[in-house]
Amino acid sequence: MTVRIGIIGIGQQGSMYASVMKNGTFMGMEIGTVEGLELGAVCDNSDERKAWAEKELPGVPFFSDHIEMLDSGLIDAVLVVTPHYHHPVMAMDAMERDLHVLCDKPAGVYTKKVKEMNAMAETKPHLKFAMMFNQRMNPLYLKLKELMDSNVIGEIRRTNWLITTWWRPEGYYQMSDWRATWGGEGGGVLINQAPHQIDLWQWLCGMPTKVSAKAAYGSHRNIAVEDDVTAVVEYENGATGSFITCVHDLVGTDRFEILGDKGKIVVEDSKKIILKTLDESESEISKNLSFEDMKRLFMGGGIGDVITEEVIEFENVWGLQHFDVLKNFAAAITEGAELVAPGSEGINALSITNAMHLSSWLGEEVSLPIDEELYFEKLQEKIEEEKLAKVQEA
After folding, report:
1. Domain carrying residue 213
2. Are 351 and 231 in contact (CB under 8 A)?
3. Are 176 and 81 in contact (CB under 8 A)?
4. Are 68 and 112 in a shared domain?
5. Distance between CA 369 and CA 209 in Å, rounded?
6. Which end of the chain is more exposed for a tag (fewer CB within 10 A), N or C?
């Protein structure tokens, strides 16, 4: 069985998916086409993208209206790669027509709308619904998921992710009118660059129950949305966590730490896992350590008696995980394979993002699940402020 997939939105990201599926090429590399998947049609409302498709995707039907493509009978599934507000709307349009859905990140801009999408998906259990959380296919994070599920470091006490490798120059924000706007994109670094890490964070460590965030809006770039965020969270068991990101660190850091009561995991640059495990829990060591043993530890000796260290390094070719998600999606439809990123889970990362925004707007800690009506109200205020500012500039 071959799944005919249509792509809605063939801008920078969508054209990459189209090239992979039609020509088996990715960033100039020959990687082969996706087994069980063929490009049935593409859709975009840009004349420029239509010209690109005619040249680069010969023989692939082009549509300017996504409903016409969905109703064409040419596709069995759809990949939604449009500005964020459209993600749940277009996904539901496809589900209504009994088409399988793969949605690019994020699941949407606000959870209230994403809940509608998830509710519709529940009424269509025969359809496959997935998210393009490609980093879940990264071998490093698959290994890390295996380690966390095996409880190798015990109960989580603290998580910290410093991810500032998202440097974007001023010109990046001038590429599209919708980019880095409340009305078009629904946010900045949290909604555009960091969703993959926020998804991995909750996938590996669970959902927090409380969020407190300090966000800077247009602090280092000429944009209205957030370009620098520091957030602190609390988990159900009382553990704490932090998430720090920005778009103005040209050097950039990617360091993820998970501390448990039986060890610690450190991920450096998404390329290396450093696993340090204790022979017994830290609480037991603390309770049973003799004074002489404690002196040796403080003097720099004896620590190796209780800690075992393992370093696991990975080769990571950026972008190929997108290819792997497409393969997984096709296999789920044709063979019943388990989805690595079920669409219903897209709301988790978005819930954390919405909580960070709301906390920063209110200047106070918020609990999860957040007040969705309040979030939507505050988002509309941001959109109106943005419109007013543009009128004043003109």
Report:
1. 137-316+349-388
2. no
3. no
4. yes
5. 8
6. C
pTM of the predicted model as reported, rounded to 2 decimal places: 0.95
Residue 165 shares a structural domain with residue 286: yes
C-alpha to C-alpha distance for 358 and 374, rounded to whole angstroms: 8
Cα separation, 196 vs 254, in Å, equals 13
Q: Into how many domains does the chain fold?
A: 2
Report the alpha-carbon distance of residue 260 to residue 276 in Å, rounded: 10
Where does residue 35 rank: exposed (0-12), middle (13-18), buried (19+ CB within 10 A)?
exposed
What token pair was written down for 275? 């696993």
- Give the containing element (helix H, strand E) for 150: none
Q: How far apart are CA 195 and CA 159, in angstroms?
A: 17
- Is 252 found in the same domain as 151? yes
User: Residue-wise pLDDT tens for the chain (394 aa)?
Assistant: 899 999 999 999 999 999 999 988 777 778 888 889 999 999 999 999 999 999 999 999 999 999 999 999 999 999 999 999 999 999 999 999 999 999 999 999 999 999 999 999 999 999 999 999 999 999 999 999 999 999 999 999 999 999 999 999 999 998 888 899 999 999 999 999 999 999 999 999 999 999 999 999 999 999 999 999 999 999 999 999 999 999 999 999 999 999 999 999 999 999 999 999 999 999 998 888 887 777 777 776 556 678 899 999 998 656 689 999 999 999 999 999 999 999 999 999 999 999 999 999 999 999 999 999 999 999 999 999 999 988 887 7
Q: Are residues 71 and 156 in the same domain?
A: no
Do 96 and 72 meet the contact criterion of CB atoms below 8 Å apart?
Answer: no
Would you say how long the chain is, in residues? Answer: 394
Q: Alpha carbon of 197 to those of 142, 256, 343: distances in Å?
A: 13, 10, 16
Give the CA dihedral 108, 323, 336, 135, nearest 10 degrees.
-50
**Could you tell me which residues come within 8 angstroms of residue 228 by beta carbon, excluding any fewer than 6 positions away?**
189, 215, 216, 219, 220, 245, 246, 247, 248
